[in-house]
Amino acid sequence: MSDVTDISAKDVKALRDLTGAGMMDCKKALTETSGDVDAAVTWLREKGIAGAAKLAGREATEGTVQSYIHANGKIGALVEIDCNTDFVARNEDFVAFARDIALHVTAAQPLYVTEDEVPEDARAEELRIAASQLDNVPEHARERAAQGKVNKWLEEVVLLKQRHVNEDKYGGKTIEELRAELSAKTGENVVIKRFSRFAIGA
Amino acid sequence: MSDVTDISAKDVKALRDLTGAGMMDCKKALTETSGDVDAAVTWLREKGIAGAAKLAGREATEGTVQSYIHANGKIGALVEIDCNTDFVARNEDFVAFARDIALHVTAAQPLYVTEDEVPEDARAEELRIAASQLDNVPEHARERAAQGKVNKWLEEVVLLKQRHVNEDKYGGKTIEELRAELSAKTGENVVIKRFSRFAIGA
Q: pLDDT digits over A124-150, tens only?
C-alpha cells in the first residue's frame, strides 16, 4: 500500500513542470513510484499522460560533451548532446549514446546536424546538379526525380538522417530514431546540439 | 672511427631536403650519427647549421587528432597537431603534447590559434575599447597604451600566446614556446592546426 501523504507538493510541482500533466495525475504517478520523480515521469509517459510535445518544448540546458578518437589518431570527433537535467546528463546510457554519436560522426562524416542547417545555396546547387542528370527521365517526372536525388544527398550529409555506422548494434536505425528512443527512455528532450570532426590531411 | 663510405647519396639528399644544410655538413652529420637521418637532423640543429626557417617551410601533412574531456563531462576540446612524418605523429611525446594542448584549450578558452587568425574588425573593436579607457593617460602616450591593452587581450585569446594552464608541468611557458621546443626535439615542423571547444550552456 502506498502512502499518499509521503508525496510533497514540491515534487508534484516539479513533475508538473517536467511533464505538463495535471496535478491529480502527478500525485498518482508519484504515489505509484514511491515519490521517485524520474520514475514518475516514465510512468506518466508509459500511460500516455505526459506528452512528448511538452518534453520537446523544454529547454535542453544540461548535457554532456564526449569525443571519439580513432585508434590511428588520424581522425576524431567532439559532440555535445543536451538534455533537461544534470541527472540524465550523467546517466550511463546517455553518456554512452553521446560517445556512440562521436564514433559515428568520425566514420560517417556528416556536414550538418539537422536538415534545417543545410544552407539554401548548398541545397539549390545539389538540385541543379540533380536536374542536369535527368536527360533520360520523361519531362513530367523530372521534378520528382530531382527532388528524390536531393533527398538521397540529404540522407548522406545530415547527421539525424544518417543510419548509425554500427549496424550490428543499432540495426540500421537512423540517428534521429536513436535520439527519439533515448528521449522516450529518459523522459527528456534529447538534442544533438553540435559536432566537430577533424581528420589529418582533410 | 666512422666509416664515411657507409653514407648513401640518397640519405645525404634526404637530409639536405629536410634541413636545407649544405652537402658537406650533411655528410659530416650522417657520419657522426652513423647514418641515422633523424639523429643527423638533430645534430645539424644542435650545431646551428639546420635552420628552423627551413623546417618551418616543410609542409606539415602528417599529425594527430586528440581530445580532452573534463571529468564532469561538461567541457571538452578536440585538437589537430600536424608534423612532417607519420613517425613523429605516432611518437609518444608528440601525442602527449597534443593531449596537453586539448586539456589547455578546455580550460583556457582561446578563440584563435594564431594572431594572424584574429579578424581585423575584432582587433579594431578591441583597440577602440582600449582607447576609450585612457582618459587619465597623457595624449602623447595614449597610442602606445592602447596598443599595450590590445596586446594583453591577444595574450588572452590567442592560443599560441597563452601560458599553459598546467604551471607545475610547464612553468608558465607559452604554447608557442612549448611548440617550438617540440619542433626542436623532433626536428620537424610542429603546427597547431585547429581546435574546437564545446561547453554545456555556452
A: 999 988 888 888 889 899 999 999 999
In chain B, pLDDT over 90 holds for what percent of residues? 62
Which chain B residue has the Cα nearest residue A63? Answer: B200
- Say yes or no for a CB contact (<8 Å) between B64 and A200: yes
The distance of A4 to chain B (nearest Cα, Å) reads: 36
pLDDT digits (tens, 9 = 90+) for A82-131: 999 999 999 999 999 999 999 999 999 999 999 999 999 999 999 988 88
- Cell output for B56: 618551418
- Chain A positions in Cβ-Cβ contact with residue B196 (cut-off 8 Å): 78, 196, 198
Tell me the whole-structure pTM to 2 decimals.
Answer: 0.73
Are A137 and A150 spatial neighbours (Cβ–Cβ below 8 Å)?
A: no
Q: Write out the three cell numbers for B189.
A: 615542423
The complex's ipTM works out to 0.72
* CB within 8 Å: A90 and B73: yes
- Average pLDDT value over all residues in chain A: 89
- Hey, are the CB atoms on A76 and B66 less than 8 Å from each other? yes
Distance CA A129, CA A197 (A): 27
Residue B53 has pLDDT above 80, yes or no: no
Closest by Cβ to B196, choosing from A61, A78, A95: A78
Q: Which of A65, A82, A87 to mutate to test the interface with B (most CBs of B within 10 A)?
A: A65
Mutate to test the interface with A, among B101, B196, B197 (most CBs of A within 10 A): B196
